[in-house]
Amino acid sequence: MSGLEWIVEAHGCNSGALADLHALEALFETLIGALHLHPLGKTNWHQFPTTGGITGVSLLAESHLACHTFPEYGSLCLNLFCCRPRPGTDFEALLKKEFGASRVCVRQFERPYQP
Fold first, then answer.
1. What residue numbers bound the domain in which 88 lies?
2. 42 burial level (CB within 10 Å; 0-12, 13-18, 19+)
3. Active site amino acids
């Protein structure tokens, strides 16, 4: 048995969207729905007053979904860990559409539980 982890980095994003809490909440809702994830409560958000960057984390029955935005650099970092294998989603198309990303790097890792 093993889990899957996605590390997603999006660059060239719209800085206004990266500082928009509603845009990040919509991203989490989209990912949770598309991947049939199960949040254990409300997502916790923090917006940095100087840059407008946002950090968010949602604890899931499957593990966690987290993001960090950097409006000053036009970048968004996303991490999703699921304890069981599952099909992914088109992170690249989603981040290009919703945040105007010009480049998206998606890395997927299998996380085995036994050596």
1. 2-102
2. exposed
3. 63, 68, 83
